[in-house]
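Thread: alpha-D-glucopyranose complex, take 2
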Amino acid sequence: MADMEMQDEYGAERQRHKDVKQSFPSSLVESGSSSNVVKEYPPPYAGMGKEMVLHYSNTPAFNRARKVLLMIFWGSWIVLIGAVVVLTVAHPRCKLKPNIEWWQKASVYQVYPRSFKDSDGDGVGDINGIREKLDYLRELSIDAIWLSPFYESPMRDFGYDVINYTSVDPLFGNMSDLDSLIDEMHKEVDGRDLKLIIDFIPNHTSNESIWFQQSVDRVEPYTEYYIWEDCGNATHLQDPNNWQSALGTPAWTYHSTRQQCYFHQYQDSMPDLNYRNNLVKEEIDAVLRFWLDKNVDGIRIDAISKLYEDYNLRDEPAGDESADPNDYYGGYLNHTYTKNLPEIMDMINRWRGILDEYSTNTDSGPARPRVMVAEASGSPTQLKMYYGRTKDGGANFPFNFGLTRINESCDGLCIAGLVDTWMDAKPEEAPANWVLGNHDKSRITSRVGEEKLDALTMLLLTLPGVSTTYYGDEIGMLNINISDRPSQDPVGWSDKSLSRDPERSPMQWYDNSSSCYGFTSDCQAAWLPPHPDAEETNVQVERDDPLSHLSVYKNLSRLRREETFSYGDWTTLKVSANLYSYLRSFNGLTSYLVVVNMGDTALVDEDFSEAVSKTSATVAAITGKSSYIPGAKADLMKVSLQPGDGVVFSWPYIAQ
Ligand code: GLC
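Output below.
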């Protein structure tokens, strides 16, 4: 039925077509063998054939107009394409603002809990003390706190010797204090929260941990939780090999109950866990999940270089025979079989996977990207391993301890060398990171002198990537002298020169000695004495002084929030003994020129105009003694700085 209707319609159409065809001029009729055959035009050309249209449009005027219009049309296309090519070639490609996570540009502040703020008067800092000082930390414009260990511990390494990984030592408070600290830190103030990175200590436990005690007694499943080897008997001991602990002593200790030796990379009270036992891996996974469930933002993995040792227990190869055999770090042995073994990456990648799970899903709110920082030791090239081989593997970065080697003789060339070594060794896409000091190193102000502290702060906060500040370095705290007192740090008990007490003295808050400068209500009880210069070097006094170390730190830290510092390019400019300088810039953003004098002579009238194609700029930040005035215009053709001074110049982006 439908077919018939279609045929009818088509028939009517053919009739209409025939009528038109009879009225065609003869020139449009095709002369075929059967003469006068006219082309059939099926719909949709049924109304007027192409020839007919051409016939009427083939007038000279129409042809001319058509030619002109075609020329205009194609001409415009050619001009347009040419312009696009010229502009693309002539102008540098605009970089897109990268998508970066908080930790790639973070300013991290290390809190050593024993020494930061005591809230209960027992002379040891605690978690509630840290909570009391959160406003101060926000005032520093930091992004994250790295909190050194607070776990239950006999304190033979002040918390790095853990009894129970999922607890809080009563000395520091309790779990609900920690929960409150995390909640408080995560509250946004002026649109920013504070992140918490905890110390994660997988390499060893305390010998007082229940795991070790059960292992000693060969109680399952703990028997192989640690690294046990036969080593003769109590009357005739024979270490399994020549491995050494970080203290320079043998790394094997005999246990008379088990009648075997256990291995320890650190003190004999800190036995190493056995990562060739799957049960250990599962235990540590559970610990990690426990803390991620508590919403911590990341982990700093302690002593990661020492997680695995050679399976065959081979002797370490000899190093420098003239070095002191009792100095682990002196080079007498090459620690080839006990450090930076490739198996470590299996564990790092395993933990990375767990962190990533939490970075993308959480039951307790929106996803929070979690960071993994590796505390590894080795050359920058060796440390490269820790970034992993794939984008999704590895730690986010290993700490860069290059700048912790700086002393007062490290001038501009020396600093540039240390910075370049790290920048050249790290994978291109990984963020850089900078550390000036920590709880294991002599304080930066004691190493370089007060004069140069501000310039180093300037570098720390304006170089690309992550900065880490050790508590008290922002006010210029110095090492305390412990020559007239015993070492609190057990590492210094037999050799005081190894003690880390000098860099761990109480934070100096106020100029009031009766309150132990604000650290604790009972200064007699303070676990270490405050530095004698606390009267002048403290938060209260420095807060009121616009030229103090604290004010310099705060100004630079605020400036650091500018996007250019978060992801801008970094280009080294002039370098000499008394000059280190670089440019931070990014398409569309304000540019910054950083110049510091780390030398011993004045820098006079240095001309930067060619290096930055500018003759003047605005002073964006200065070190305390610098003669530049923040906010003022400055001549870039004559930059002068005294030793230890630094200045940041800025100018707005101007589209070319
Ligand atoms: C890390 C810590 C250090 C500790 C050692 C053993 O190096 O920074 O303080 O003594 O590991 O845990």
